[in-house]
Amino acid sequence: MTIREFKAESKKELSKITENPDFEAEQIIKHVLKISKNSYLLNKNMQIEDKKLEKLYETLKMRMDRIPLQYICKEWEFYGLRIFCGKGCLVPRQETELIAQETIKRLKPRGHFIDLCTGSGCISVAVLNNVKQSSAQSVDISAKALKYAEKNCKYHNLEDRMDIIRCDIKKFVPKRKADIIVANPPYIKSKDMPCLPPEVKYEPEIALDGGEDGLDFYRIIAARYARYLKKNGIIICETGYDTAKEVKQIFEENGFEAEIFKDVFGEYRMCVAKINQEKKL
Length: 281
Hints:
- By secondary structure, this protein is an alpha/beta fold.
- It has two domains: 3-65; 92-275, Vaccinia Virus protein VP39 (Rossmann fold).
- It contains eleven helices and nine strands.
- Strand 3 (112-116), helix 7 (122-130) and strand 4 (135-140) form a beta-alpha-beta unit.
- The protein is elongated and about 65 Å long.
- 40% of the residues are buried.
- The model has no long low-confidence stretch (mean pLDDT 95).
């Protein structure tokens, strides 16, 4: 069987579970055969060795069992960078790139930021790779997730700028104040957890469940972290598609000026909160 023939067959199967069967089939082929995009394009008529073909079918079955493609590939692109990820770690998502982009835009060279609920460390890695001589404290309670953060930190040669800390954000005390605090906290409503797509259910519940109304972690951040910001510091948070207005209100009730922004899909998915100097926090 050639690469072209396997892709056609796998694409037909994948169309049963995904809206992007062509893309996913290509990712599986490149992952298993360990080939680049160019090599894939140039060798579509190449015969696949029996052992490799067996591995391809095994991998296709994993995906048909609804294991996230990111877990299968053990890495994913985030903000143009290679990010390692896997079981126990939240999958890097396109909407989260908006948070990284906003942080990169606002953080000055040599600036310092705190990345709460860092997971794989994808936001920290993206910002540190794009803002010269910046530094980060990257915090998460999950030891499993932080193993990936450590791997990504090392892969991108950021050990001297990315301080990875295992701690509950309810108890974390930063070593220094930050220009920006960024967070992609759990924001799924508890009642919605059983209704999540099969792929999402493979991801760690601790990184998804935001409490009864999905807002527990925003209350913690808004109430606790203003004291750890420098003057004119800001907090940038990813929000659920249906909770951005509530997140804005939580920050405003805690003495911030807050604004919400839409992602590339037209949904309000980011809240930027600035300390209101006229209010006593």
